[in-house]
Amino acid sequence: RPLKFVTLLGSLRKASLNAIVANSLPELAPSGVEISSLGSVADFPHYDADIQAEGFPEAVLAMGAAIAAADGVIVVTPEYNYSVPGALKNAIDWLSRLPDSPLSGKPLAIQTVSPGAIGGARAQYHLRQSLVFLNANVINKPEIMIGQAGSRIDAEKGTVSDESTRHHLTAQLDALAALARRAG
Ligand code: FNR
Predict the structure, then answer these.
(1) Which residues form the NADPH-dependent FMN reductase-like domain (predicted)?
(2) Which of 3, 31, 80, 153 has the highest CB neighbour count under 10 A?
(3) Tell me, what's the ipTM?
(4) What pLDDT shows up at residue 122?
(5) Residue owning the nearest CA to atom 29 of ligand 1
């Protein structure tokens, strides 16, 4: 059967460069891999244990179920102030409290995209730190840090225009697929 991967996006804005990369992944995927979006984290309330005590928000439950059903997760996110955007961190905090902990053991790949030179590298290591506590199965390499995104992404067409970036993305999806197959 095909592997099913889902994308978790750290930007909320319509014209997001990260969204363009996330949306390009289905066509860049190796054969036997299907990729779909988890949907926006914009509807998640700020994490609050009092809200949790009354019942997890519907959006959190739905995303948790979609992750549980997937063979792998690809987080695609900008770097905000050298770290993880608040909306994404908030989503991770909610998902971490779900009883079945859907990210535990889940094969996961990280991609960051930035107009800046180093492509959001600093956010990647903050994100990895949180994912250690969630026990996600994060691949180490190849790392995807798309810097100077304005020259590698065609924002008007909404495509990843740089050929070498496209190859790197496919290589990472290959690595995630290999891990997901090993994980069974
Ligand atoms: C940024 N940006 C940014 N870029 C970067 O490379 N390192 C950083 O630390 C930051 N910090 C930062 C903080 C805040 C609050 C904003 C709004 C932006 C710039 C960021 O990479 C740029 O806006 C991207 O285009 C955001 O990603 P999307 O929305 O295009 O996917």
Answers:
(1) 4-149
(2) 153
(3) 0.99
(4) 97
(5) 16
